[in-house]
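ZP: hey, is the shikimate-3-phosphate complex queued? I don't see it on the tracker
AM: it wasn't, my bad. submitting now with these inputs:
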Amino acid sequence: MKEPYKYNTIYLVGFMGSGKSYLGSRLATRLKVKFVDTDIMISDRFNLSINQIFETEGIEKFRQTESDVLSTIMIDYLPKVVAVGGGMPCHGNNMELMNNSGYTVFLDCPVDVLVNRIKNSEDRPLIKEHKRNLEIYVRELLQKRRPEYQSSDLILKKPSLEDLVSFTSDILGPESL
Ligand code: S3P
């Protein structure tokens, strides 16, 4: 169990559609800290959408940039909530770095909920080719990624904002209160 009031970062991890950005921005507001979204940071770096980055730069460059962005986040001492792109914890030693530098929360949602939330998404390049068998694709990829996600400090099943607030309100250091 990690000690309360010791961390400056809460990382929200989980599959596409698990609510990291939606809940993360609201959690940050409730905790009165800043909100950071790794996909937005990456888009801003290239001045391109996530689709365009995959198309023009390739997935390897995207993954490399995720790791670079994480390094930037880790040296920022300000208290914050970070929504982490769904694949980031599963590449390199990113999950270990997040576990060592903050408090990680896995937003664990059932496959049908994830599928419903992402099926009409236009800026998620990974699912483009799999729209016809999306449920199978999500199930298989989630299965592969689950061990990394599950190494989080906290696992919340079907999380609501209220769950998230009550489980994380004593995590960030006093300067954030
Ligand atoms: C990805 C998830 C996306 C984004 C990119 C790749 C993944 O973020 O980083 O499309 O590998 O699962 P969200 O989890 O915010 O959709």
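AM: back. The two ends are 21 Å apart (CA to CA).
ZP: great, adding it to the tracker
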